[in-house]
Inverse folding.
C-alpha cells in the first residue's frame, strides 16, 4: 500500500504539478487578456523609432496584434495560432502566411518576440539550477518551427518572473538577450516586469525596448484568432 | 556642480521617456482614419520596335503622378461602415488626366461571433499567389508592376460563417457571395448581363490553409477553384491555386514558395500556367510565366531599408521584365521607393513589344 501511495505521489510530482515554466507563464499574463505595449528601436546614433501595439492573447497558443502607431504601420495586424503566423496589411487587404523568424518592425525584436506564446507551449525544461535568489532554466524548443532552439532563462524566485533570457540557435550561436525589468502592478493581480530590453551581437550598437502600458484580463471567443477576423481587431478594442 | 545636476536630471528624464507610457494614445474612438499621399516620377525610354512607337515617335517621355488614398471606418455596436477612396492626378508629357475611385464602400453587420454579412463595394481578394491569382473570380486582375495595389472591388453581398475548433481542423469558414453585372452595376466585371454566385469553404487543417470554391454564372459555364498555403519549415512557405471552367477545356494553376534565409533575404518564386490565352490587353495573358522576387531586408545594417530584384519571365516567347529597386522607411511616416525597370525581348514578343523600354521610377509615400 505504501508503495502504491509513493508511486502515485511521484507520478503527481512528475506529471501533475505545475512546472516552474508554467508558473512563469501565469505570472506574465492571464490566460485570456488584452494589452497595450510600445516598441522602441534605438539606433547606434541614438535616433529612435516607436511602435504602439494592441494585443489579444488566449490560452497557450493564440495571439493577435494590431499596430496603432506609427501612421505608416497603422492597421497592420499579425495573427499567431500555434506555429501558424499570418500578416495583414491594409493596403494588401488579405492575410499572408509569414514565418516566425521574420521581423515585422525592423530592429532586434522579431515576430516571435512580439507575438510571444506561453514559454511552456514552445519549450521543455532540460535542466534547472538553483543559484540562490534565481533559478536558471535550460530550455529546449519542442520542435524545429520554434524561432530559437535553446533559451537560458534566469527566473527571480521571489516574483517568479524572468530577469534575463539568452536566445540561441541549434548551433549554439547567441542571437539575442532579453532583459526583463521594472516590476509593475497592472491591477487585477497582474504584477510583472513592464519593460523588456533586448540587444543582439547580430545588431551591434542597436537596442530595442518593449514597454507594457496596460494589461487587462478579458475573455475572447476563439473566432477572434482566425484569418477571417485578422483585419477586424480594431473592432474589439474597448 | 549645477551643470552636472542638469545633465543627470536630463539623463534620468531621457530614460524615463523610453519607459513611460502615454495612456492617451490608446484612447478608443468609434472610427479609424488612415491613408497616404503618393507622389511619383517616371523617366521612360521608349522602344523603337514597339508597334505603338509611331504614336510617340520620340526617344523618351516624362510623367508625374500623384495619388491620395483615404480609408475611413465607423463602428457602432454590431455595425461597421468601411470605405476607401482614391484620387489620382497624372501628367504624361504635358497631357493631364485625373481619376476619382471609390475602391471600397460597404456595411458590415455582425449577427454574432460566427455570422456576419457585408453589403456594398468590396474586394474579397481570394487566392494565395503573390503575382497572379487564378481563383480570384470576384477581383480585378493584379497589376504586375504593383501586385499589392489592386484594391478596387465590385458591388456584392457577402455572407460569412466562421467557426473555430480544437483538434486537427482548427477553423472552418464559409463564404457566400452574390452579385449582379449589368449596364448600371459592375459593368466592367463581365460582358454579359448576368447573376453571379460564389461559394468558398476555408479550412485550417493540419496547419494548412485550404480553400475550395464553386462559382456559378447564369449566362456562362460555372467554375471551380482551390488553393492552399502551408509553412513546411519555420522559414519556407509553399502555396498553390487551381481554377477550372466546367464543361470546357479551360484551366489555370499557380504553384509558388516563399523562402526566408538566415540573413533575411526573402525569395518569392511562382510558376503560372493557363490552358487558354486571355486578352492581350490583360496582364499575364500568355500560357506560362515564371516570376521571382528577391528582397533583402536591412542590407549592410541599413535599418528600415531594403533592396529588391523582381523578374517576370514569359516562358512562351522568352521575353521578360526586370526591376531593381530600393525602399527606405523614414521615421516621419514617409516611404521612398526607387526602382529601375526594364522590358526585354525579341520583336513581337510580349515585353519586347511594350512601348516603354526602361523606366526610372521614383515613388514617395506619406502615411497619415
Amino acid at each position: 500500500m505504501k508503495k502504491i501511495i509513493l508511486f502515485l505521489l511521484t507520478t503527481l510530482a512528475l506529471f501533475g504539478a505545475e512546472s516552474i515554466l508554467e508558473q512563469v507563464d501565469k505570472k506574465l499574463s492571464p490566460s485570456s487578456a488584452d494589452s497595450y505595449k510600445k516598441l522602441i528601436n534605438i539606433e547606434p546614433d541614438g535616433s529612435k523609432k516607436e511602435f504602439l501595439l494592441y494585443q489579444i492573447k488566449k490560452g497557450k497558443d493564440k495571439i493577435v496584434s494590431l499596430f496603432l502607431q506609427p501612421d505608416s504601420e497603422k492597421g497592420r495586424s499579425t495573427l499567431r495560432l500555434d506555429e501558424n503566423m499570418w500578416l495583414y496589411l491594409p493596403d494588401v487587404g488579405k492575410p499572408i502566411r509569414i514565418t516566425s523568424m521574420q521581423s515585422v518592425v525592423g530592429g532586434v525584436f522579431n515576430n516571435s518576440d512580439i507575438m510571444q506564446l506561453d514559454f511552456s507551449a514552445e519549450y521543455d525544461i532540460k535542466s534547472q539550477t538553483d543559484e540562490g535568489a534565481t533559478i536558471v532554466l535550460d530550455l529546449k524548443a519542442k520542435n524545429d518551427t520554434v524561432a530559437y532552439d535553446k533559451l537560458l532563462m534566469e527566473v527571480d524566485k521571489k516574483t517568479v518572473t524572468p530577469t534575463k533570457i539568452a536566445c540561441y540557435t541549434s548551433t549554439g550561436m547567441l542571437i539575442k538577450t532579453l532583459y526583463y525589468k521594472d516590476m509593475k502592478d497592472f491591477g487585477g493581480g497582474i504584477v510583472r516586469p513592464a519593460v523588456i530590453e533586448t540587444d543582439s551581437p547580430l545588431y551591434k550598437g542597436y537596442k530595442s525596448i518593449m514597454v507594457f502600458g496596460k494589461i487587462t484580463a478579458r475573455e475572447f471567443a476563439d473566432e477572434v484568432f482566425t484569418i477571417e477576423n485578422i483585419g477586424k481587431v480594431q473592432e474589439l478594442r474597448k | 556642480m549645477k551643470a552636472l545636476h542638469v545633465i543627470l536630471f536630463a539623463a534620468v528624464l531621457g530614460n524615463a521617456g523610453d519607459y513611460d507610457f502615454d495612456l492617451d494614445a490608446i484612447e478608443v474612438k468609434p472610427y479609424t482614419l488612415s491613408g497616404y499621399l503618393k507622389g511619383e516620377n517616371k523617366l521612360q525610354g521608349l522602344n523603337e520596335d514597339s508597334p505603338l512607337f509611331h504614336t510617340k515617335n520620340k526617344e523618351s517621355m516624362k510623367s508625374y503622378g500623384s495619388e491620395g488614398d483615404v480609408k475611413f471606418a465607423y463602428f457602432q455596436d454590431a455595425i461597421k461602415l468601411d470605405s476607401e477612396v482614391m484620387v489620382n492626378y497624372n501628367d504624361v508629357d504635358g497631357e493631364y488626366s485625373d481619376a476619382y475611385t471609390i475602391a471600397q464602400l460597404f456595411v458590415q453587420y455582425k449577427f454574432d461571433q460566427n455570422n456576419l454579412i457585408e453589403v456594398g463595394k468590396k474586394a474579397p481578394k481570394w487566392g494565395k499567389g503573390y503575382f497572379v491569382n487564378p481563383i480570384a473570380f470576384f477581383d480585378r486582375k493584379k497589376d504586375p508592376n504593383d501586385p499589392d495595389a489592386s484594391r478596387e472591388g465590385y458591388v456584392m453581398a457577402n455572407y460569412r460563417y466562421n467557426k473555430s475548433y480544437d483538434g486537427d481542423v482548427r477553423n472552418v469558414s464559409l463564404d457566400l457571395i452574390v452579385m449582379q453585372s449589368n449596364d448600371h452595376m459592375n459593368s466592367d466585371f463581365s460582358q454579359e448581363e448576368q447573376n453571379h454566385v460564389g461559394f468558398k469553404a476555408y479550412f485550417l487543417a493540419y496547419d494548412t490553409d485550404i480553400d475550395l470554391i464553386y462559382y456559378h454564372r447564369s449566362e456562362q459555364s460555372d467554375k471551380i477553384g482551390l488553393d492552399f498555403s502551408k509553412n513546411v519549415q519555420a522559414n519556407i512557405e509553399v502555396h498553390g491555386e487551381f481554377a477550372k471552367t466546367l464543361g470546357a477545356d479551360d484551366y489555370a494553376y499557380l504553384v509558388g514558395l516563399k523562402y526566408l534565409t538566415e540573413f533575411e533575404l526573402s525569395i518569392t518564386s511562382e510558376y503560372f500556367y493557363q490552358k487558354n490565352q486571355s486578352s492581350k490587353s490583360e496582364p499575364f495573358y500568355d500560357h506560362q510565366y515564371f516570376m521571382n522576387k528577391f528582397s533583402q531586408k536591412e542590407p549592410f545594417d541599413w535599418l528600415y531599408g531594403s533592396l529588391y530584384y523582381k523578374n517576370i519571365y514569359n516562358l512562351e516567347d522568352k521575353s521578360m521584365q526586370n526591376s531593381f529597386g530600393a525602399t527606405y522607411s523614414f521615421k516621419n511616416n514617409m516611404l521612398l521607393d526607387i526602382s529601375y525597370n526594364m522590358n526585354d525581348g525579341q520583336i513581337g514578343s510580349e515585353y519586347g513589344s511594350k512601348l516603354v523600354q526602361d523606366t526610372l521610377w521614383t515613388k514617395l509615400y506619406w502615411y497619415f
